[in-house]
Amino acid sequence: MDRILDIDLDFFLNKVSESRENGRRLKKKKYFPWGKTTLTSFLENRCLLSSQNRLKGRMVKHHHQAFFFWRKLILTKEVEIPFEVVHLDAHSDIGVADWSWIYVTSELLHKPLEERIFPDESLLKGINEANYLAFALACRWIKKLTFVIHPKWKNDLIEVYFKDFDFESNSIQLKKFDQKVLFERSFDIAPSSMEMEPEVPVEFIPLLDYKNVHPFTILTLSHSKEYTPKTSDKLIKVIKRYFKAI
After folding, report:
1. Could you tell me the strand order of the sheet in which 200-206 lies?
2. Per-domain residue ranges of the chain
3. Helices marked H in the chain — which ranges?
């Protein structure tokens, strides 16, 4: 089984930034990146990466572009589905308080699998850097999802995506809703009106407890400029030692 190490540069900061709309970099006097030596040690000793045996990978500007990279690898049969994703990020990227969860549950999941891989990309309800993992789950690409938790992470998950609407179920289970019922009754929906997608095991591991066991096959790195100070850019060269761009 393929295993993807999915990294956002904002994971390697002392703080977690909230959503930003002005497009400016974070203030370097408030947000401090890891040192190069610390990052190298983490990647080699905790993630088991090797600069002598580099992974296939790609760096993207915005994290949801990883979805399109994965799609390309799937369509060209360079990656087998389903695969495992280990997510190193200051945010969960499974969704925020926008309209995308309504689109996913009441539109996207009603489509055949071969059509789900080409989701809506509009600003209001489409795929973006804060929700792309939900779209990958809707495509049934992910067999297991591991969140490595930033020490300052704030819960930004959406209950509706979890089995029994319970974060502690250790399982994501997307649900198909009838859009009319969804708008009329919100979360007070009878089980008979839902169709369940397959369960996907999910694990939350604190940063200091994370220790990889099995080798990765693919690496994606998001620059995410709006969520990082310019001083973080020095870490990109460190991470690039461990993958060859394809």
Report:
1. 171-172, 200-206, 142-149, 83-89, 3-8, 218-222, 55-60, 243-245
2. 26-245
3. 36-41, 65-75, 100-106, 113-116, 132-138, 179-185, 234-240
What is the reported pLDDT for 124? Answer: 86
Rounded to two decimals, the pTM is 0.95
| Cβ–Cβ < 8 Å for 10, 229 | no
Q: What is the pLDDT of residue 185?
A: 54
Amino acid at 95: G
Q: Cβ neighbours of residue 10 under 8 Å, at least 6 residues apart?
A: 16, 17, 89, 90, 91, 224, 227, 228, 232
For residue range 141-180, list pLDDT tens digits in order. 999 999 999 999 999 999 999 999 999 999 999 999 887 7
Picking from 62, 55, 47, the residue whose alpha carbon sits closest to that of residue 9 is 62
